[in-house]
Amino acid sequence: MRISKNIIIFYLVSIILLLLLFGCNYQLEPIKIGVVGTMSGIDSDLSVSGRRGVELAVEEFNNSGGLNGRKVEIVVKDDKNDVNQALRVDNEFIDKNIPVVIGHYTSGMMVESMDYLRTRDILFLSPTISADSLSGIDDNFIRFIATTKEQAVVLTNLANKNNHKKFAIIYDLSNKGFNENLYNN
Prior knowledge:
- With 185 residues, the protein is α/β, with parallel strands linked by helices.
- It has 2 domains: 31-146, 3-Layer(aba) Sandwich (Rossmann fold); 150-184, no CATH class.
- 45% of the residues lie in helices and 14% in strands.
- The protein contains 7 helices and 5 strands.
- A 5-stranded parallel beta sheet has the order 2-1-3-4-5.
- Helix 2 (45-63) links the parallel strand 1 (31-37) and strand 2.
- Helix 6 (148-161) packs across helix 7 (176-184).
- The protein is elongated, with a radius of gyration of 24 Å.
């Protein structure tokens, strides 16, 4: 039985490729997640602190081996505390096929965009957004904090418990999604 040269070359190339693929410790593509918030300017404290928390968690996760050897890589975007910029950067995550985003960190940046974003294939996780208007809807948003109404109830009960009768309320108009709701509740 005569073996053709082409078959021998095919098997040799196949063996070499298999050795290269499975015999070497090649890098798996990282899992990308987004982080978005007000990363610059006077209103950046909350988002920058949140981003740093994500960085620490990702570093610890990656140092422990990642997910089946795949590392997590974060892609950070600045919404500049502007609703139009927030929607632009959200679309950048969608365009880059980044399926999970941590943020926004203020209700005002998410409330205006939710009707649009809820029809897109992207999941938002927020540790700080509490706007009541984002409750009870079928969307792709998960919060990890009590709603504004729930917070107002706790504050009211505390004030009643301590027999406080008068209040002064000062709030920032750049985060109306939170502040106005808290005030009204």
